[in-house]
Amino acid sequence: MTYQEKLIGKLNRKSAVIGVVGLGYVGLPLVIRFVEEGFRVLGIDIDEAKVKKLNAGRSYIEHIPAASIKKCGKAGFRATTNFAEVRKADALIICVPTPLNEHREPDMSFVIGTVESLMPHIRAGQIMSLESTTYPGTTDEELLPRIQARGFTVGEDYFLVFSPEREDPGNKKFNTRTIPKVCGGDSAACQAVGVALYGQVIDRVVPVSSTRVAEMTKLLENIHRSVNIGLVNEMKIVADRMGIDIHEVIDAASTKPFGFVPYQPGPGLGGHCIPIDPFYLTWKAREYGVHTRFIELAGEVNSGMPEWVVNKLAEALNERRRSVKGSRILVLGIAYKKDVDDPRESPSMVLMEKLRQRGATVAYSDPYFPAFPRMREHHFALKSVALTPRNIASFDCVLLATNHTAFNYRLLKKHARLLVDTRGVYLKPAKNIVKA
Question: How far is CA 433 from its chain centroid?
């Protein structure tokens, strides 16, 4: 019996051990999904604090309840920082960050560092799947040679696939099981094992012809969203100059039953995908002599939105005989999207920095962050402000940056001296509301 047949057999019998490397917003839901289907799961992460919390049955992600973690623990799930334990796993699923460096170029250090840590401990008969969003060619340029250098023949005694994550935190319509899973293998044998792996826990697996196709698929998905958000953000600026409410326009256009998909404008892009992933393709495209003008233009529009919002806020204060300098400004929501506890790449952070640079005294309110989170680029020694009538009225301006459901919008409208709305929450005009 071949290694391929043995591994597919173990996956089909659910006797395979699944190793998930990186226990964040992508890795942890996968852990839960495999445990739910009866697999033994081993979690690997370099963060000792995360590992201790998981092994104690606690969660550190808002939309994942502690009860789910405890249930996994009772089913045999265990987290560790010891990479040597990956020898016990039959499948290794890598879910680590792929950010940009200070030059807006791909930072592959997390992926490469993780793979280097795994290499001394891999064994014949395993499958390795990379889920981190990256440029086309990463799997066969970075992972494949390292596995081959260990003496394995990929497609015979070791198997390699790329299967991009498609998590959408806060979206209650879809979950890990119901979101179709794209999977591209380094060979036909790799593909077959990859489909067997994900087919146990995902309703629909979508096979593609190569790892590069799978890598490009993920980039297209996110670039499609980035470009369309860039378009609607630019339309917002034009509409604003013309005295037209862009949200009313979008609602009207959405009644067309064909050929139009509504996208909502905002104060900028946030999250771990949309603001970052397009630059992975633009960077790689240069290697082929291609200048991705359309993608980069959308990036320029979206990255310019925080400055536009701050200028709108400054104009609104000026009309009330106030300057930004010396004003007390409360930013509502520092998560990158509504109803999540994820601050990565949030435009709220950029807004706070820009306001502080202009001399404003900045505060924030966000039910998901009692204290300002530790971040690599942004530092504020602040705690979340309670939204009482007195507190709201004490600020010169309230800037609605993230439209959490938990906010009392009626209370805010009643007591805010000036409320700048970047999310289209307030559809009816009011003297104290400015849309930005």
Answer: 31
